[in-house]
Amino acid sequence: MSVLQEIDTAMSVRYVVTLDGVDLGSFSSCEGLGAEVVMETREEGGHNTAVWQLPTRLKYSNIKLTRPLGKDTEKLARWIASMASGYERHTGVIQAMSANGTVIAQWGLLDVVPVRWTGPAMTPDNPKVLTETVEIAHHGFISPGGKG
Fold first, then answer.
1. Domain hosting residue 29, numbered range
2. Which residues in the chain show pLDDT less than 50?
3. Does residue 79 belong to any structural domain of this protein?
4. Who's near 128: CB < 8 A, 6+ residues apart?
5. Are 25 and 68 in contact (CB under 8 A)?
6. pLDDT tens figures, 32-72
7. Which helix (H) or strand (E) holds 120?
8. For 32, left (φ over 0), alpha (ψ -120 to 50), or beta?
């Protein structure tokens, strides 16, 4: 098999999201996967040529997932509504899948909680595909199969 045949370019990617094994469905876009090392700067007397940059902690950005409204919207609504009676942090997995269902990449997420859900803007003068967006927070990346 040649190198070109082994590369999957991820055209028509969908993002499948599960929380503790419960499928929330697939999304058409995923933004915000990332981490940042927060740096603290220290100036040292007598050391005038540089400022020390010390890593302090990791900071994870919120993730926004968007998709057209569909049958999986109800699953998402149930998860958001469950927050009214207190919340539980969940272990989550986001899988990037090609059009034929091949998993291209996956990210395990620790302590996932919903931050915001935005439904469609329904205006008769602007006929568009109705979409929903969910924003989630997490507290780190883990092995997609579990802890660690």
1. 9-42+49-142
2. 1-10
3. yes
4. none
5. no
6. 999 999 999 999 888 888 999 999 999 999 999 999 999 99
7. none
8. left
Tell me the two tokens of residue 123.
């205006």
What DSSP designation does 73 have? H
Q: What gap in Å lies between CA 65 and CA 115, rounded to an integer?
A: 12
Q: Residue 63, by phi and psi: left (phi above 0), alpha (psi -120 to 50) or beta?
A: beta
Q: Residue 3 falls within a domain, yes or no?
A: no
Output the pLDDT for position 82: 87
State how many domains the chain has: 1
Q: What is the rounded distance in angstroms from the CA atom of residue 117 to the CA atom of residue 32?
A: 15
How far is Cα 108 from Cα 92, in angstroms, rounded to an integer?
6
Whether residue 132 contacts residue 28, with contact meaning beta carbons closer than 8 Å, is answered with no
Does residue 92 lie in a domain region? yes
* The pLDDT value given to residue 148: 53
